[in-house]
Each structure stands twice: as structure tokens, then as C-alpha cells.
Amino acid sequence: MSSTEGATDEALPYGMPYERETRYDPPAGLMALQDRPMRPIRYYPDGAEGWLVTGHAEGRKVLADPRFVTGERFTHSPTELPHVFVSITEQVPPGFFLFYDPPEHTRLRRKVTGVFTVKRMKDLEPRIEAIVDDRIAAMRANGNEADLVRDFALPVPSLVICEMLGVPYEDRDAFQENSATMLDLSLSVEDRNKAMGAIFAYLMQLVPAKRAAPGDDMLSALAADEELHESEAAGVALILLVAGHETTANMLALGTFALLEHPDQLARFRAGPETAPHAVEELLRYLTVAHNGIMRIAKEDAEIDGQLIKAGQHVTVALQAANRDPRKYELPCELDLDRDAQGHLAFGHGVHQCVGQQLARVEMRIGFAKLFAAFPDLRLAVPSGDIPMRSEMNVYGVHTLPVAW
After folding, report:
1. Which three-class secondary structure string do you get for 220-288?
2. How many domains does the chain have?
3. Backbone φ and ψ of 316, nearest 5°
4. Residue at 4 is within a domain
5. What pLDDT is recorded for position 9?
6. CATH number at residue 354
7. Is there a contact between 381 and 404 (Cβ–Cβ < 8 Å)?
8. Which of 24-33, 91-100, 188-197 has the highest mean pLDDT?
9. Is residue 6, in this structure, part of any structural domain at all?
10. What burial letters (b/e) apply to 30-40, b meaning 16+ CB within 10 Å?
11. String of b and e for 216-230 (b: at least 16 CB within 10 Å)?
12. What is the torsional sign of CA 227, 230, 236, 237?
């Protein structure tokens, strides 16, 4: 057994490297730490000792272990920029079950798990296909160029989650802007909390209206649930509204960018529809847009693979490194749509694994397939080096993606 006890400042790396040298690969400094898949590091801002996990198997163990919790106050960050966990736990809204542990987490999450089953998502496919077709038609109607983020990648999942929740799509500008602010790591914790509060307040106004005049939507069901307070219904909806469009939107845009820059893999994707499910899983693994990792706090002393994590220490699972673990995937830094990427950690793992992952998979599978079928000569409209990357955001991707056909 080993621990950080007695380690010197020089002995411990400071933080998790996050500045990228290339568009698609994790930071070289982070990948250099893979030789020790679970290592002690110092956290910002005060040098507190904690842990960084870069290994796939080790990451799964931490995320599945109930001794590592989220229902605590996160006061340290693995980078100079305050981690989103730090800002959110400054003021966790009621019902925001991402930062609750069982049994409260279980009570709240079960209110929505039934909506996101594989069967329910299969039933939703025709509506998602219609939304994707509408966006493609709108792109064609506007000429032969578009910003794929504005005109396709963001509207598709936003429309889907708004319809599922019963949130008016015409209000999207406000909640999309506040969502982006909430996840912008370059902003102050105060600004990010204010943005989260604005979305929560917006949903709090919708809940009593849904109780008075319910519809066939998730927010109406949450509002009518006698086991939930109005604030809890709004908090659950907040998770779904933000997560329901941010991650998928960035995967659609960044995935398109990656395929356009890997023409051999794009050709493989075009070869047949049976490629799409494998392609989605490999793009999720390869790109890992949740690039700042998942944090946990040890609620008691815990030993993982001979390493002693002390009670109260922060642990960061670097998902993008774990998904490039050569012990799990052969040639992990190559994009290979024929790879069996099952078991990746792009959606996390354990009880907090993304509740909407099946919806995201369907949206990406349909979105990519229809986009590349509709525009066989889709290409970048500007040099790739001019594409602004979302390096400062909690969810990685591109701010805009000008394309032509």
C-alpha cells in the first residue's frame, strides 16, 4: 500500500494538464501521466493533495465505488480554472440529482429513468428523424453554406429535449446562453452560478403552469408527482435541459469536424448504415467531450489497486485519458470506426452514468447518417486552423463550424 503521506511539493505533479496541442488528442502532458494510471497530485488553488486517475480500469472502479461521493462541497480544482463541480456545488438546486448520493440520488433519478430506456428511444426515432430532416431542409433552403453548430448540431438536440420536457423552444436563446455561461470555465464561479440560477428560476415558473394545465411531457409528469416538491421538479428538469442539448450538440459538430478531417474513416462511415452504431461509440471514445474529467470526494479512507485515498481527498477521473488507455484499446489515439469501443467512459460509469445516454446515441446515429447522406460533398468552408475550439468550456467542441456543399 502507498499513500501521499510525506510526499514533498516536488514529488507531486500540480494539477491536471488541460491545454491541448492538437484538436482531437488530449493534452500531451496528461497522456504522459498514463504511466501511472492512479497518481497523487496537488489541486488548485491551495496545493491540497488529491488524486488523478488516467487508467480505464481504475476509473471504472472509482466511479462505481460508493465510497467516492458527489454530495459534498467541492472546493478544489484539478486546473487553474475552477472545475464545473466547484461552481455547481456552491449552490446545488433542489432536485439536481447529479450532486446527490444514494438514497436521495436514487429517489430522484428514478423519476426519469423510465423515459430514457432503449425501447422508449426506439419509439422516439421517427420524431428525431423528422427533426433532422427539417434542419437539413432548412440548411438547403439557405444556400450552399451553413454554420453546422447554429443550423444543425445545436437545434437538433435542443428541439428534441424541449419537446420531451415540454419547454417552449422559442425560449431557447435564453436557456442556451445561460447553459453556455454555466459551463464556461473561464468565467467566475459567481457568474456561472448566476446563469444556473436563471435557468432554475425559468423552470420554476413553468412547474406550476404545468400542474395547472398538464401536457404529455416530462415536466408535466414531474410537476404532477406528489412525491416531488416544485423546486425538486425544476431541479430534475434543469439537469435534463442542460445535459440534453450541450453534450450531443458538441458531439454532432465535433464528430462532423473529425470525420471531415479523417476522409478514410468518413468513407468507411458512408460504406453502409450498419457502420453508424459502431461509429458513434468510437467517436464518443475518441473525442470524449467531457474533457475536464469527473470529480469525486472520498467519504472515508479507501484503497484502490494498492493506493490509499484518504477521507476528504478529491479524486479526478480524466475520462479523455482513460478512453485512450492502451491497456484497454489497441492504438487508442487512432480514430477507427471498425473498433469495438464498447465500455468507454464518455458517459461516465456507475450510478451517476448519464441518464440520457440512449437518447444521445439515437440523435448522433440519425444525425450523422442523414447529414452525410444529404450532403455527399460536405466540406469545411474555412481552413481547419480557423475553427474556434471550445477549450475553455466544460464540454469540448467547436464554437462554430462553417461548412459548404
Report:
1. HHHHHCCCCCHHHHHHHHHHHHHHHHHHHHHHHHHHHHHHHCCHHHHHHHHCCCCHHHHHHHHHHHHHC
2. 1
3. -115, 120
4. no
5. 46
6. 1.10.630.10
7. yes
8. 24-33
9. no
10. bbebbeebbbb
11. ebbbbbbbeeeebeb
12. positive
pTM, entire model? 0.93
For the chain, the 3-state helix, strand and coil shares in percent, each to the nearest 5, are 50, 10, 40
Strand partners, 369: none
At 89, the pLDDT band (50, 70, 90 cuts) reads confident
DSSP class of residue 391 equals T
The confidence band for 1, taking pLDDT boundaries of 50, 70 and 90, is very low
Q: Report the side by side order of strands in the sheet with 379-380.
A: 145-147, 402-404, 379-380
| pLDDT of 368 | 96
| Cell triple for 260 | 471531415
Share of the chain above pLDDT 90, in %: 78
C-alpha cell at 397: 467542441
| pLDDT level of residue 273 (50, 70, 90 thresholds) | low
Q: End-to-end CA distance of the chain, in Å? A: 59
For residue 18, tell me if it sits in a domain: no
CA 83 to chain centroid, in Å, comes to 14
Instruction: Give the DSSP H/E element, type plus range, for residue 365.
Output: helix 357-374
Question: Does residue 88 register a pLDDT over 60?
Answer: yes
Q: Is residue 227 part of a domain?
A: yes
Half-sphere exposure of 290 (CA within 13 A, CB side): 24
CA dihedral (162, 163, 165, 169) positive or negative = positive
Expressed as residue numbers, the domain containing 374 is 28-404
Biggest CA-to-CA distance, the chain: 66
Which tens digits make up the pLDDT trace of 291-322?
999 999 999 999 999 999 999 999 999 999 99
Alpha-carbon gap, residue 155 to 21, rounded angstroms:
30
Cα gap 383→17, rounded to integer Å: 27
Beta bridge mates, 218: none
Which of these, 389, 391, 390, 387, lies nearest to 402 by C-alpha position?
387
